[in-house]
């Protein structure tokens, strides 16, 4: 599980995530890595997910990265909105129904779950208690300033949140950040 934040601004969109990958073995939580890539490029969009990192697809086990490479290869020319729809439809064919996704392109952010697709200016997904606490600390995100300044602010907020909340053991590692500007193709 992870925490991922998506923000839409007048200048573009930003995604931030933690980088911890955990596994549970005999009711104990182990940190496998604090350097796991959790933001992916999907055609000309950015994508982050929270939930399962490995999934069964066509009777094979894949990492989320392998799944997204396969998905991108099968949908190379879709626009952001069509990618969101196709990804939601694909959730039914995998064990990713418990995952939530954030898709970002230019100044648009979509929250994708197995039930809905919502265009939103601000979304946090991931471990339910961590998301609730993040919203409690950061109920809104100001969208004034350059996209680079806003990305730094979001990265600092999430870094502070992770450091101040060690009780969320599945969340940790350095914060990853990516953004898409209105000038991106």
UniProtKB/TrEMBL annotation:
Matching Gene3D superfamilies, A to Z? Glutamine Phosphoribosylpyrophosphate, subunit 1, domain 1 (3.60.20.10)
What is the protein named? Uncharacterized protein
From which lineage does this chain's organism come? Bacteria, Bacillati, Bacillota, Bacilli, Lactobacillales
């Amino acid at each position: 599980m992870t925490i991922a934040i998506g923000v839409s601004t007048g200048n573009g969109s930003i995604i931030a995530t933690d980088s911890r990958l955990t596994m549970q073995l005999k009711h104990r939580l182990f940190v496998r890595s604090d350097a796991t890539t959790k933001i992916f490029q999907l055609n000309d969009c950015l994508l982050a997910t929270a939930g399962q990192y490995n999934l069964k697809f066509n009777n094979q086990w894949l990492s989320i990265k392998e799944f997204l490479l396969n998905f991108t290869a099968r949908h190379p020319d879709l626009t952001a909105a069509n990618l969101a729809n196709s990804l939601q439809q694909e959730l039914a064919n995998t064990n990713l129904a418990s995952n939530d996704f954030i898709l970002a392109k230019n100044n648009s952010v979509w929250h994708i779950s197995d039930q809905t697709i919502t265009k939103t200016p601000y979304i946090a997904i991931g471990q339910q208690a961590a998301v609730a606490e993040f919203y409690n600390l950061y109920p809104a995100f100001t969208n004034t300033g350059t996209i680079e300044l806003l990305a730094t602010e979001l990265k600092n907020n999430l870094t502070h949140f992770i450091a101040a909340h060690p009780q969320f053991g599945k969340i940790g590692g350095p914060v990853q950040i990516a953004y898409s500007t209105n000038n991106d193709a």
